[in-house]
Every structure is written in C-alpha cells, then in structure tokens.
Amino acid sequence: MYQYNSESDDDAEFDMHNIDVPEDLEEDEVSSDEENSSENDEENDIAGVSTENESDLENVDNNSTTDEERLSDDDLDQSQNIQYSVHELIQRIRACVSNVRGIRAVNDYDIRKARSNDPPIKSNLVTDFEIRWNTTFIMIGRFVIYRSIIDDINSRPFKIAHITSTQQLKLGSKEFEFNNDEWNRINDLDTVLKPFLIATKIISAKNYPTLSTTYSVQYCLRHFLSESSENDSIWLKRFKVCLREKFQLYFA
C-alpha cells in the first residue's frame, strides 16, 4: 500500500485582504463660511480617493477573473487535446490490428515472426470490444509486444508473400506507420491503464470485496494518478491530470 501525505484542493485556504476604509469624520460646528468650504473640499478629496481606490480594486478583480478564465480555458483545451490524441491513437491501433488479422497471409507471417522472436512471443494480436475497456488494454499491451514486427510489416510489406499490390500499399501506408513519439505514447497508455486493470480484478474477485478493500484500491489509484517522476513524458503527465479530473468527478 502506498503511503503518502497530500493536501486536497478542498483544504486550500485563500487569505482575504481587508480593504482600509477611512474613518468617519466628526462634524464640528463651524461658524464661518470659510470653515464650511474647507470641510467640503476635504470631503470631496476623500470621496475622490475612495472612488479611485474602488476603481483600482474593480480593475484588479476584473484582471483576476480574466486570468482565471484564461487558465480554465487553457486547461480545458489541454484536456480535450489529450482525449482526442488518445482516441485517435487507439483508432489507429485497432485499424492496424484488424488489417493484419484480416489478411490470412499477413496474419500467418505475423505469427511466424512472433514464434521465431527471441524470446518467442506466445500471445497473438487481438482486437478489442469497444464497450469493454479492459480488452482495449489487452489489445494495447499485445501491440506493444509486437512493435518490431509491426514496424517490419509497415516498412517492408513486399516481403510478405501471397498478397496483392493493393494490400501491400495499405500495409505500408502512413496510417499504419508509428513513429517513436507515437510508440512512446502507446507505452504510456499501457503504463497508465495497467493499474486500473489490476484494480478491476481485485474488486471483481470471487470473494466479494469489503469496503476497506475498495477504499484501499481507490486510494492507490488516486496516488498513482497524483505521482510523477522525472522520467515521465509531458504527454504522460498531462494524461494523468486528465484522468485525475475524471477520477475526482466520480470518486471525490
């Protein structure tokens, strides 16, 4: 079990600065018109200063609100970009696996390469059920294992016998070409989803889980999404932030 100390957003307190208000001026009895005129001038000066202060405070409040809105919009855009990139990446993985498995000659070539690998790859590429996220994790995990074979098929489709030129062009297309950054993101997806798969297995065991077990699992997942290391990519950190926001929404 992870042990750590953290402060939640709800515990954060903001210091409020009191605004200095001028003390009420006592009105003295004035017998001459000059003294009355002097007091009126002072009151006008004070009113002018007060108006300027209020105007400055309003400007500060408006600027603060604008900054908060800008930060909120930036966070929202960032979250949407992460979700879009994840969706697009999974769609491409799903299409690539379906294409490899859909052509018998390519599937046989894929299996032979896997068995001759050192060490041999015993598992096969699989497609997922979109309504079951744990199968998506399995698909991604297998895809990571087959990285060298996928790259080989994409870069040299003409080496595969008994396929048409159209099939060769499709296998060698940019759609099924994954660069280093994309492979790193696929690895990050595998890294992030794995604890959720373990958590699902723990709370879905034959023996019904207790509330303490469920709480412990939730605690560990929250800690996992909150921690980061120097080796984590920027994309991985942002992806964790995106997941943490959803986690807070349902388990706050």
Automatic annotation (TrEMBL):
Domain of life: Eukaryota
SUPFAM superfamilies reported in the protein's UniProt record: Ribonuclease H-like
Membrane-spanning ranges: none
Biased composition (Acidic residues): 21-45
Alphabetically ordered keywords of this record: Metal-binding, Nucleus, Zinc, Zinc-finger
Region (Disordered): 1-78
InterPro entries assigned: RNaseH-like_sf, ZnF_BED_domain_contain
Molecular function GO labels: zinc ion binding
KW Zinc-finger (keyword) present: yes
One GO CC annotation: nucleus
Compartment(s) where it occurs, according to its Swiss-Prot or TrEMBL record: Nucleus
Listed name of the protein: Uncharacterized protein
